[in-house]
Hints:
With 725 residues, the chain is of the alpha/beta class. The protein is 33% helix and 23% strand.
Amino acid sequence: MKQVLVSGGQVHLEEVPAPQVEPGTVLIRMDHSCISIGTEMSGVKSTGLPLWKRALRQPQHVKKVLDLALSEGLAATRRLVKDRLSVELPTGYSGAGVVIAIGAGVDDVSVGDRVACAGAQCAFHAEIVRVPRNLVVHMPANVGFPEASSVALGAIAMQGVRRAQPTLGETFVVIGLGVLGQITAQLLRANGCRVIGVDLDRARLALASSRGMNWGLHPDDANDILQVARITGGVGADGVIITAASPSDALVSTAFRMCRKKARVVLVGDVGLDLQRADFYEKELDFLISTSYGPGRYDAGYEEKGLDYPLPYVRWTEGRNMQEYLRLISEGTLDIRSLVTAVYPIERVDAAYRSLQAAGEKPLMALLAYPQTEANDGQHRVLLDERPLKAWKGQIRVAVIGAGGFAKGMHLPNLVQLESHFQLRAVASRTGHNATSTAKRFGSAYATTDYRETLADPDIDAVIIATRHDTHAKLALEALEAGKHVLLEKPLALEESELGAIEAFYARDEASKPLLLTGFNRRFSPYARAIEARVAGRSNPMILNYRMNAGHIPLDHWVHGPEGGGRNLGEACHIYDLFTFLTGARVVRVEARAIRPATGFYAASDNFAATLSFDDGSVATLIYTALGSTEYPKERLEIFVDGTVISLDDYRSLEVAGAKHKRLESRAADKGQKDELIEFAQAIKRGNAWPIPLWQQLQSARIALSVQELISSRPSNQGKEYDSE
Length: 725
């Protein structure tokens, strides 16, 4: 299918694989989509700015880059920043079309329904989009696709009006008569208000006046503040809604000065906000911000998980605003058709955006129209390199399933550097633009939104799975059953039943089946290898203390939810594997205690201590906490053994006290990700022993599950015994 993407200050049409329907979502074949002139053009321009100009606009990111350079090194940071800035971004957030598929849990939408949709994270300028149910509304029979495609803009204008709380007979000023201003003026008239419009474009003033606006003011004709005072009999406006976009602070100051005492000003547009106290203090004005489409916006529970707000308590959500907007069009209260001044077929998207950037008169509302064909509905794979790809010099042909930040920042760059071992054949991702952009950037043969394509591909030898945690075990088992070797990012599983299924797969004739490697990369670090070599010949058990100053992650992050399983299962499992690697022993007892946070800032499993007893007599303790400062080093390991103390700091330095030892250190942390890939390749090509024996992978996962059970239970339940056999 075709989708509009943005990079380097330009828009272009790209062939990408179509999305697949998922639970709680609706698949829509777009008929029309609406270009948001202000928001989208700002985004297009920003992608064309040099790095230093972007830094000036977003100084909060500069510190992140500097911190990354200190921890990962300048070369790695430069590569990461360059990759992120060159990425092709989707654009668009408002459209209308026909439903072609519905996901599980959606029971009030049917295939063939005419719907409108919104959402910058999903309602792209694309032939087919996948949209969560709460961002989809049915279209009245007498409303056409062109008008309905403006549903997001309509909801934004409506939420601005709701924030202003207009009453019959009040006088409101609308500053900026672009699309949002035009719709806002009509909505205020529908509320029984007298409306004054202010704009620099006389044609827009005339259009709004022809649609019911009472007065149109051009700043060149007279002082607009005094004009508002004259119109209102010297009282001032009851309220002002700012729908203009400008970096200037003057618009807000003007709005304040137009108001009567106790009036309200609502900001919908993007303007400068260097407020002057004198403008609003004496009048005791209310200054309100309108958040996009309405309640539910930026709430993942509402938008992504389908959790609606109860109507008696939240009368107007973003979804209900969208539906009401279409109803007002249907009844003739709003005239949207006259605002549509340009419609471009999707194939001419470059011309559409050029018209919005050109000097002189620009379209007020520009739409993109899509061909209505079912030809591409099922195309979930896009070929990028038509040359037959055959492994050469012993290369392993690999597919990456899940093209998130870790895969793009770590695995894929490493695969490119290890071309003597690997050949990247496919990239699979939930979204077509991400799959295609990532595949092109790293030289993959094709991109797909259906991971099953990679499992069925006879020219793929192995897969790297880097999806969210709750899919790991399922995808790994499917890949193994398809005969593919698997490098699976941790965790191996989130449930004991998932571990049991993997264990059962290997129960008979393990040697003849594909290799499974869980991504416990720390054991492949040169530091961990050096420690393992030193303690291998010890005469006594060890005491191992590991501190992970993990830092706080907001509770609404996916890591804490069902997709992530929490930080113990998702991250601490790394350390349970490291303990297993260094002792080479089986665990016989697991003990764990968590602190109960006094506030809702921390998750219940964010802060805990876990102690493991092994059958060689060694005892290992992990202190995992989100209570500390990120300015302090994240990880430290201390091992007490045979009269020595071995200390590892953040995988950047290793020291041994009590014995002769050459200090190991590196400028950047080396946690073994590249060496892990090398071990994976060599084990496949040479038939070597697995880089991590299956029993150790299972043990580390089961330790994590045991710790999770203990820190989630009452304090009296402190430990769990294991059969060392």
